[in-house]
Amino acid sequence: MYRKVDLEQCSREMQKMLVPEIGVKLMTEKAAIEPLKFFRVRSPAANIIKQEMLSLGGECATEPGAITCAGKYVDIILLGTVGQYKRLIGKLQLMEGWFGLNTIIKELDSYLNRGSLLTIFADGRTLHYEKMKIMGIINITPDSFYAGSRVDQGDSLLCRAEKMLKDGADILDIGGESTRPGSEAVSCEEEMSRVVPAIKQLKKAFPQAVISIDTRNSQSAKEAFLAGADIINDVSAGEADPAMLPLAAESKSPIILMHMRGTPQTMGEKTGYKNVVDQVAEYLAERMAACQALGINNDKLILDPGIGFAKNAEENLELLRQLSAFTGYGVPVLLGASRKRTIGEVLGNLPAEERLEGTLATSCRAVFSGVNIVRVHDVRENFRTIRMLEAML
Questions:
Q1: Is 150 one of the catalytic residues?
Q2: Does domain 118-392 fall into CATH 3.20.20.20?
Q3: Structural domain spans, the chain
Q4: Could you give the dihedral angle defined by the CA atoms of residues 30, 36, 42 and 45, in that order, rounded to the nearest 10 degrees?
Q5: Residue 120: its pLDDT value, please?
Q6: Catalytic residue (choose from 375, 380, 384, 387)
Q7: Active-site residue, 375 included
Q8: Given a cut of 90, is residue 365 above it in pLDDT?
Q9: Which has more confidence, 117 or 147?
Q10: What percent of the chain has pLDDT over 70?
Q11: Rounded to two decimals, what is the model's pTM?
Q12: Would you say 277 and 326 are in contact if contact means Cβ atoms under 8 Å apart?
């Protein structure tokens, strides 16, 4: 008799058999193939890597021009276990300096030594990710795409925040400017007049609450910090305002880097990707590097692939299928798909008010993909769904 062992449960099954801890660790590394895609590898290096992976019992998929070196650069996909990758590094180090292999060695080592994920706030508090975190959306705006997310300053704001926190929200995301497709920009002064008093009220009422400020403006972010905000949530990944990344570095506040093309006014015209997952991953890696160049460490960074921002429905679905592509950089990943247009299109052009079930499906996908935060309008429903799924896993 035999039965299949789920990959996610392999280590638990070995522990039940009283396999020594070191044995569980070593054998777990051999249990799962972890495909890794490397971009623009020199053809000779691709051939070397393929031969070495084959010698280790793994594989390396290459483009047709790699074998004959007809193309100078090719993409490759490594198909190996953690253990095989560790041995591959040792082999490649014997040829370090050849054909750009040193870059492959560095990136592969970085992947294998990502460490535990955490976010450290400016005041020293730390957010750990043993369980998925829930970010509740609160918009101090008259025009956000989902009316249910809009509140006014005062009692309605405090009631909404209190309910979200009781329902399981770990973070409250406060926005003063709609970034829905086609929305008009508001002035920095108008944005600050909406969010700064709101954050002050929230911090006074809920001093331990973690608050993120959803803004593209460094001045709004700075004033929000003075009012008590903890995280910058920038849909432009620091590109809309050149002062944003320096502010994040100076304030030591975490920043969420999201992928978007153009602006909310133009992004609907900027869909169309050769490979949406590759291009979004490359963009986020570039923005991470820009942050790191300013001394912003990984414990201050969070990545967001930007569902709905300059992507059509099929492109959004492809990102949802491959969310795990963004979880290998050693920083937390956030999914913001709540009640978005793609859900409505998939389910028969439903309005935002009828997209809760579709949202819950995206949150489940996020759990399976290793995503760390979901940004949602409906905290209680998402919290219960996610915790039940985590308990089963």
A1: no
A2: yes
A3: 36-112, 118-392
A4: 0
A5: 97
A6: 375
A7: yes
A8: yes
A9: 117
A10: 99
A11: 0.93
A12: no
